[in-house]
Specification:
With 260 residues, the protein is mainly β. It has one domain: Jelly Rolls. It contains no helices and 15 strands. The chain has strands at 58-60, 75-76, 79-83, 90-92, 100-101, 113-120, 127-132, 134-137, 140-142, 149-157, 160-167, 188-194, 199-204, 226-231, 238-249. Strands 1, 4, 5, 6, 10, 13 and 15 form a seven-stranded antiparallel sheet that branches. Strands 3-7-14-11-12 form a five-stranded antiparallel sheet, with no helix packed on it. A three-stranded antiparallel sheet has the order 2-8-9, with no helix packed on it. The two termini are 33 Å apart.
Length: 260
């Protein structure tokens, strides 16, 4: 599974609650192998070489209101949620995902919907929301190749503290399309402190880092399996909105919202 990067307990290894839809399933899939490449370190696996670079910059603006990412060519992704099972804890949405209408004072004709999340009461590792990311062709699903891009940006409103991460297979558990078997879920990410008004945030790939508690891995933007928004126990309760996730093309010099 984008399971929380702070997940260091047995609870983190359990299957997450998934926003509905057949496509939202993120467990291991039946896949046919790509043609092997001798230089690839995992040439014998179903996804033994890098997929073609993805060309679609928009990940999701939530205007279609469904649980899928914006549909890019040969790209697939579905929003999901997960939280630890502390008795009495709250996770919303939890089950069916649907974007919410923005308050009238914040909406425009072109921007009417956003994703709205709330969590409270989790005491083991916290909560996470995110989307699977995959290159797809003829039933095959492999890590998404984002090597054409230099980073990612989005808009958000809190207040609260979140950690946004991009997940490579080496730190993702095998049951969630990864290759990790020990000390998993130490994702490459960046912490953002949200204000109580809409603001833009962004990060370049070379600014993402692991937490340092799990399996160490190199961040490779050509092999991404998940986008994750994680909230630690110390940042709960939290109530926040996110919108307009998009990738930053390299030809912009990798500038993000945090860098003019």
């Amino acid at each position: 599974m984008l399971v929380c990067g702070c997940a260091q307990t047995e609870a983190a290894s359990r299957a997450p609650a998934i926003f509905g839809g057949r496509g939202a399933r993120i467990a291991a899939l039946d896949e046919k192998p790509l043609p092997p490449v001798e230089s690839a370190p995992e040439a014998a696996s179903p996804c033994g070489r890098e997929a073609p670079p993805s060309e679609t910059a928009l990940l999701d603006d939530f205007e279609d209101g469904d649980n899928a990412l914006f549909r890019g060519f040969e790209r697939e992704g579905y929003w999901f949620s997960a939280g630890d099972k502390t008795e009495g804890s709250v996770l919303e949405p939890n089950g069916s995902f649907a974007a919410e209408l923005l308050p009238p004072a914040e909406a425009t004709r072109e921007n009417r919907y956003a994703a709205h999340f709330h969590a409270s009461g989790q005491k083991e590792w916290g909560a996470t929301w995110g989307s699977t990311l995959a290159w797809t062709r003829k039933g095959l699903r492999c890590p998404l190749n984002l090597s054409r891009f230099a980073g990612m940006r989005f808009r958000a409103k809190g207040p609260g503290t979140i950690r946004v991460a991009l997940v490579v297979p080496e730190v993702q558990a095998k049951e969630y399309r990864g290759t990790c078997t020990d000390r998993c879920y130490d994702y490459h990410g960046k912490v953002f402190t949200l204000s109580d008004r809409w603001e833009s945030y962004g990060v370049r790939w070379d600014r993402l880092q692991q937490g340092g508690w799990g399996t160490e891995a190199r961040f490779t933007p050509s092999r991404i399996v998940q986008l994750s928004i994680n909230v630690s126990v110390t940042s709960l309760p939290i109530d926040f909105w996110v919108d307009d996730f998009e990738l930053i093309p390299k030809d912009t010099g990798g500038r993000t919202a945090e860098e003019p």
